[in-house]
What we know:
six-stranded parallel sheet; Rossmann fold; alpha/beta; 12 strands; 16% strand
Amino acid sequence: MSRVLVTGAGGMLGQDLVAVLATRPDLKVTAATRADLDITDPAAASGAVAGHDVVINAAAWTNVDAAETEEAAATAINGDGTANLAAACATSGARLIQVSTDYVLSGDAHTPYPEDAPTAPINAYGRSKLAGEQAVARLLPDNGYVVRTAWLYGAHGPNFVATMLRLAAQRDHLDVVDDQHGQPTWSYALAERLVALADAAVAGRAAPGVYHGTCSGQTSWYGLARAAFALAGLDPDRIRPTTSDRYPRPAPRPAYSVLGHGRWTAAGLRPLPDWHTTLADAFASPAPPAPWKVA
Length: 295
C-alpha cells in the first residue's frame, strides 16, 4: 500500500493509528478528524477516499448509553457513514478496514466467539455497529475487512484504566464488577495489527471478512483494575469485587466478550498478545504521556 486514509484520526485509536503509520516513510497518510470529514455526507466521503488505496475507519459514535435514546443518530454514523465509505471504496478500488465491536454479539456465550458466530446485539450501539458491518459485507465483498475490538484503553481518550487510576487518588477502595468478562486491549497494539492487516490485504495474503482485534486471554473488569493498580504501584486489594446489578446502565452490557482469533493465523498474521503483556507495555511506554502515569 502507498496511500492510507485514517478517519476518526482525532480519537483514541485514530491517534495511535496515525502514530504507527508515521513510522512508515513509504506511506502517504491522510489523517481526517471529525472536523475534517463528516462520513455521513456521501459526497464528502467519496472525495476523501479518492486517491487512497487503503481506508481505516476509526470514526464512530462511541457513547453506548446515549445510543439507547439516540439510536438514529448513532446509526447515521456507525451504519450509514460506514456505508458511504464502503461505497466510495467500491468505486475507487480501495480496501476498507472497518473497526467494529464485540457488542454485535449476544454476550451470553461461555467459550470464545469465533469470527463467524451469529450476530445478535443486545443494545442500540451494537445494532448501529452491526449496520456498518453489514454495509461492508454488502458493498465490499472482496475488499472489505471488519475488525471487532473490545475493552479498549489508550493514551488519547477516556477509558477504564485511566478512570480507575484517577479514582484511586479520590477513594480508599473501589468496587468493580467481576461478572463481565472480556479481553483488555491496548489501542496502540491494535493499531499496529490493523496496519499489518492492511499490508496483508493489499498484498493479497489476507482474505476479506471479519477478524477479531482483541488481546488474548481473558479477565473481568475487577481483574483488570487489580492488574492496573499493581502496575501503577498501588495496592490491588483496594479493589473490591461486585456485581453488575449494583451499577445499572441505560444500555445492557454483554456478560461475555471473549473473542477467538483464528483468522489472523489463517492470514499468516500474529494475533494480539496476552492482555497482561500489552497492559505492561502500555505502562512502560515512554511516549506519549498516558493518563495512567501516576506519581
